[in-house]
Amino acid sequence: MGCRRSLDDVADNLASLSVGGSVDAGGGKPAAEDEAVRLSKLGRKKDFKYMERVRGRLINVLEGLELHTGVFSDAEQRRIVNCIYDFQERGRKGQLRERTYSEPRKWMRGKGRVTMQFGCCYNYAMDKDGNPPGIIRDEEVDPIPPLLKQMIKRMVAWRILPSTCIPNSCIVNIYDKDDCIPPHIDHHDFLRPFCTVSFLSECNIVFGTELKIIGPGDFSGCASIPLPLGSVLILSGNGADVAKHCVPAVPARRISITFRKMDDAKLPYGFAEDPELQNLRAVPLRRQQLHDIPSPQPAARIVQPPERVMPTQKSMQVPAQRSPVLLNEDDFPPLRSSSSRKPGRR
């Protein structure tokens, strides 16, 4: 009886948070109850660990990483993916603001993933106008779409993202097979924590203070974490600021959405916070519920030094006859339209 009452309490706070659009018109109770049950079964892993020596000190470079599984159902994932494809089509037709959509030419393995940014225009590298890496404050992009705002509300309500760091920007990556993201640390124009949500196919994200670039789309590091479908990876602490991370060439088409909060000092000129994303709070849970939330099975694979890597982890080894490939600006091209026709502004 106590468990039922506890779920009812949570359900009352979830009635407006359905990402799948299934809230009942008569008050939202059935969908909210379903979300309350799902919340009670959410997988959370927060004990990632790999010790590396940094500036003479041995530290856990994965401290601050969290993996939350079961956050978005299969039906919700399909709806989100369809929304992304709809925006991709609009971007190709020039119906989004110029810096919102980018589809570079695929000129080699690992290059050419489609990107869409909402909330702010972020520059990966010095662009043709002389803008350095970081948020370009005098550029406008489209606001965060309604369905993606619902994702933010869900993650705050379910205690995945803290209410003290609610995202006001996001970037969507659409990977074709063999597309990748090279090693990097996210720019400090964005606060910590931030998160990435995975769709369409599972892939690994690789962490380490010294990530090796073996060849186009091939990287090695100390830890490789599988990202299940519909999961949310939180990056904070050493996992965001000491360890670099990268996504090696993906085995199949994949979509990721990375949500981040901008530093107030770097907000675009004229930026107005979305009232829908203000004052979000986590749903109240009884103490017993917090203790009962299970963790998924261990997800991190710690990769041993190259000479000790198992044969099944060939992608993580460093071939002896290849030289490291240096990063250049092409690895993070400035975001711009690839169309010869300049997209119009709305």
What does this entry look like structurally?
This protein has 346 residues and is an alpha+beta fold. The protein folds into two domains: 1-40, no CATH class; 43-331, Jelly Rolls (Sandwich), CATH 2.60.120. The protein has six helices and 19 strands. It has helices spanning 2-12, 29-40, 74-92, 146-157, 237-241, 287-292, and strands spanning 43-45, 51-54, 57-60, 66-69, 101-102, 114-118, 122-123, 134-135, 169-175, 181-184, 194-199, 203-208, 212-215, 218-220, 223-227, 232-235, 244-247, 254-260, 301-302. The strands form five sheets. The protein has an eight-stranded antiparallel sheet with strand order 1-4-16-11-18-9-6-5. Strands 10-17-12-15-19 form a five-stranded antiparallel sheet. A two-stranded antiparallel sheet has the order 2-3.
